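Prompt: May I have another protein with tokenized structure?
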Amino acid sequence: MSMHHRKLGKFGAAVGLIVAGAIALAGCSSGGSTGGVTTVTVMYQANEFTPDMVKAFEKDNPDIKINLIEPDDARLNAMVTAGDPPDLVRSGPSANLFARGLALPLDDYIAKSTVIKEADLVAANDAWKWDGTTRGKGKRYGLLKDWSPDVSFWQNTQILKDAGIEPFSTTEPTTWDQLLTVAKQLKAAGVENAVGLEWQWGLGGLLGAMVNQGGETLYNKDLTEINLENPVAYRSLQWLADYASSGAGVTSENPLADGWDLPSFQTGKMALSLDGYWLGGNLAGDDAASVRDHVQLIPAPTWEVGGKRYNPVVGGIGGYIPVGSKHPDQAWRVMEYFFGGAPAEERSKSGWGLPALQSLWGNLPTALPFQASAVDTVNSELKYIAIGEDSPYLTGTVLTDALNSEIIALSKGQISVEDAAKKIQDQVNVVLKETKDQLG
């Protein structure tokens, strides 16, 4: 799993595809059919959909040739605008994507498939469902490649013990307030980076989780407005500001040179990292040899002891077939292979994300103690998994940018939490209204 893999889908606002203007790029054509061979253009990262996978697929499917191109929003927009989109696109599930009618429903394909069956899809795949108003219900417009309960932390028990702190339970959640207390204690004990939230990837998903855990929702009923003027939202924003002001973790004003938590965590310079199950594949490697005997995955924190447990799928990346694909049937065969065939089986053995198919869960790595413990933690969290809130009218990085700016200001005592909430709310709601007006 690459840093880029995570960055596209972690805790930022859902980014919808915006087709703006009739931009045309030379060489954008998605290909066609020649001599009985159909060229299927796949926009996916080559470190995930590898050249070896392409060769293996083409060997078993001599009537299809894969044209693999790297993800590029500008190029994708241009191809869609020109009426010649790729046939398969790497993406996170987005209500905005669905509301714009840019993804082809896959229900009929799944109903006929012998590889990907509806009954075998884990519930997290419902992030790709859309009923016209709500994500998580209705027709299925894409598939997850892999996923995680994203508000789960990894802890280094040795760092905690060395600081005189009892490690957190792997079965019962700690509270957010206790986590912050421990972060401050670790900072005082000289830990270089006590707790990482992957702040640089955006706080939207994390804020949404906190608000839901407190019994509120991030948006109003029809998802046309964000609502942060309530005690739970205030508490969540204040927690993030207190985290920032403590100096115990990474923020936009205290960034990591590497751009993410893994290098610090796997070399013993970070005690806790909010990275879900994802880091497991990395922690099995030689670079983490010095810490792997001391790392554990722990449940998502709650606001109170015995409080509401909620651990959303925020960053599950997958793929969809665009409306307008010239070769949707052939693209589906590529999807079957990548999301349900040999590549999916190999991914399930790696620990770099949880399988999207229930039938592959028996492949999850458990040979190392931390791997077995992580699988146990995930299984204990499954009943609290949810599809994170997502408005079809949220585009770009407006929520991420507003949160970052106002939380930093709050952490410096420049504004009150009420003012911070109002400013964030006003900035986001302007965009929500504009997008709703555009969509009609």
In short: Confidence is low (pLDDT under 50) at residues 1-29.
